[in-house]
Design brief:
By secondary structure, the chain is of the alpha/beta class. It is built from eleven helices and eight strands. Strands 1-3-2-4-5-6-8-7 form an eight-stranded parallel sheet, with helices on both faces. α1 crosses α7 and α2 crosses α11. The longest helix has 40 residues. It is globular and about 65 Å long. The protein starts with a strand and ends in a 5-residue tail after the last helix.
Amino acid sequence: MKFDYTDVQFRTDGSAHDRAQLDAATALVRRPGVTDVLVLAHGWNNDMDRARRLYVDLTDRLHDVGGTVLADNRRLAVVGVLWPSIRWADDDDIAGGGASVGAGRPERVGESVEDAATATRLEELMPALDGSAAARDEFLALLRGMLPTHDDGADDDPVPETLRSGHTDTVFAAASGPDLELSRVPEQTGGAAAFGPGVPGGAGVGAGAGGAAGFSFGGFRRAARNLLNLTTYYTMRDRSGDVGRTGVAGLLGELAAAKPVTLHLVGHSFGARVMSAAAARHHRVHSLTLLQAAFSHYGFSAKYDSSGAPGAFRAVLDPGRMTGPVIVTHTEKDRAVGIAYAIASRLAGQAGSNLGDANDRFGGLGRNGAQKTDEVVGPGTGLHQVGEAYTFTAGGVHNLKGDPFITSHGTVAVDEVAYAILQAIETPAG
């Protein structure tokens, strides 16, 4: 790490793991010359060393494009947030890799499950899914036991009711297909088109010895991994909010009380939700950078549907709370966010030509950028090359299309992202 650094661990309820770590963070900001503090949060990742590697890779690039001293002799220190998240169950969608579930490798879906008994049983069921309806029923029942018990009504991406209680065939159908982030339901081998959630009761499902029309061999296992990832999504949705509202917001308060420093928040994936929840609670933040955020693209909207409800993190944009910009990276190449929201849309019966895109009720911020948000500045732009000036504005939301620099959900530790963060930090306060 090329900057002064410390990290703070939080439990699932948002409480700090060790008071001494909070004290070390406040001591860090009191060091002579420190004027700005960058607070980082990781996403789908249950390994602290992996999270720290992401922090080192990203901040080393930030250092190399901007140095340790910012404009006007400001100096940056870094605090890393470590929280008990869960892995995404596909190798290519988190920084550093994840559970081995690809072709020709063991289907270690249990590596993405916290309860040991549940993890073991899910792995035992995987080989039987293609040929046994009973195995699929049990697999789905285990996933349902992992879901949050209720939605509090304040979130803009609730658990679809079909995921909680729909017919097993309908749920697996919604999660089928290798390209769920695309705008159509792909055809499967075997001469039958894949069926969608509109098939009443899963009509046409269950042909043969426990199989289903429209699924190729291994199709149920692919759908099962998608459903595991979606279940993980909703588990992490609640946990990341708790960590942000309780733990990180409290940390920010202590940092600000220790010394009048300028705060900058950066979150990747579910870490973006952590940081948005914290910013919605803390009284003053300068910049908020959301890298491939795993939450609704309506999260900052004042009114995203006919009910008039605001997005879950609308308070971030309350007058006087942000003294600098909110920047949001997004790309259609983000399979993690794209697939999770596409499946949710199908399960909610809203699948169509706009599956997962900016017009979908269940679209993701990391795929589409902020939608139905008046504070979005301009039509959006792409990530810039290092050295090309941005025109960020205080209190504005800036959608930055990540192509071609962000090629997957986890590809965020690149020079162009680091440069955008630096430009957000150096945006004049409004």
